[in-house]
Amino acid sequence: MPRQYSVLLLPAKPKTDRRMSIDYSSWDHIYVSDDEDATSPYVDTPSLFRMRHRVRLEKMAEFQEEGEEDEEREAELEKVQAVVKKLKKDEKTFAKLIEEYRREEKKVPWNVDTISKEGFSKSVLNTKPVPKEETQEEKVEKHKTFVEKYATEIKHFGMLRRWDDSQKYLSDNPHLVCEETANCLVVICIDFEIDEKHALMEQVAHQTIVMQFILDLARTLEVDPRGCFRQFFSKIKTADKPYQDAFDHELELLKERICSCAQLRMENAMKELEEEEKQKRLGPGGLDPVEVYQSLPKEIQRSFDEKNIQMLQEAMNKLDFEEGKYHLKRCIDSGLWVPDSGEGDDDEEDEEGDNEEDEEED
């Protein structure tokens, strides 16, 4: 196969006068393609030439695209430079206007409004800070500590009857205006109701609603309750009928709840007392003698009532063997029947004798 050559002809070096200085550096980057070096007997030379030509064209296209992007960047840069130039110009203009204003301001004569100015201004709002969320254990411990410390003051407030007396007492003891006082007053009401001191319960319940209305007012206004209890007393002293009716309605509801809680506490106390008595009278087998007695047949119950052993034995003999054995065991486990130790030994000897006779017969 004949060799093929691809030669890029360079322009001939022009003849010049030695006195003239010509720069030939622009020809240093001319690409000369000598494809002869890349030929091989194992490669199709025309295909190789076409591939190299295509690669060369792609590189030229990429270079051209980069040139176009550079032109776009230059245009964007020119826009930014124009904006910066305008801003600098505006800055000088504004600085000049400010300077002129200050010069004119110094020329203005003083008067009543300009001879002095306010030194400081401060506004204080009596708002209640957002409290930190407490756990149930922390609330219980806080309530216990507060009640132990101020139990006497809380009880004294609960016994006050006049609005003015209550307001004055809270003014002297503002620490009592809190949720713990209201809770403690409720407990006092329940204790009075359990002791059947209904009049005292109603008196303390009234003061409980007073404290509850103060706390509700503080939540509505979002302020500390110690700073708004005077507003409540001012309002309740001259209250219109709807407000007074609302107060009385809440008082009646509280008294009903107190009676229900007192009844429930008494029932629970009775159950606990009965359970303690039951535990005390349990027999050696862990059974309650009262329950066992109530489950016995009537004839056996009568024998226990009359403490008649003969009657008990006869009643047992009338029962089926398994049934009699069942009732007898329950009587022993509950302590209703305490078998005599001697009788127990005789029974064992009788059982042994019967066993021996059975063996001899066998």
What is the helix tally? Answer: 12
Q: H/E order of the elements?
A: HHHHHHHHHHHH
Give the amount of beta strand, in percent: under 5%
Principal-axes shape call: flat
The radius of gyration over CA amounts to: 55 Å
Query: Which percent bin holds the helix content?
Result: 55-70%
**Largest β sheet strand count, sense and barrel closure:** none
Return the average pLDDT rounded to an integer: 78
Protein structure class? mainly alpha
End-to-end C-alpha gap: 130 Å
Low-pLDDT residue spans: 1-11, 341-362
Strands, total number = 0
Assembly form of the protein: single chain
Please provide a written account of the structure.
The chain is mainly alpha-helical. The chain has helices at residues 45-107, 136-158, 163-172, 179-194, 198-221, 229-237, 241-281, 289-295, 298-306, 309-318, 321-334, 341-361. The N and C termini lie far apart (130 Å).
